[in-house]
Design a protein that fits this description.
Layout lengths: L2 H25 L20 H13 L5 H17 L3 H26 L1
Helix pairs in contact: 2-3, 2-4, 3-4
Length: 112
Amino acid sequence: MDTKEKNQLENLDNKDKKLDVEAAAELSPSNVNPVDTSRTEKKEVDGSGIGVTALILSLLAFFLFPFILSALGIILGIVGAQRGSTAGWWAIGIGAFVLLVRILAFPLMAIF
């Protein structure tokens, strides 16, 4: 093959490559991200799970082990509230209320 034939073949190859690229660009969806970053992204941890757990502990403190469960509810409520959970704030309030009621009610129960 002489150089003229080689140049013609290279031009044909280049044209084919351009056509392939254009066809691929036209056929592929435009909003697809070729790199999947969902596995490498760090998800922000909110305090909703901790807040709900604290709220459940604070509500159980009305009936079972009021000093232990209300204290745990208040501590977990603080952690959940710091992470942005409104249930954490409710747990702090309910746990403090239960603790206050039990502290005031125990001397009264001892009298009667």
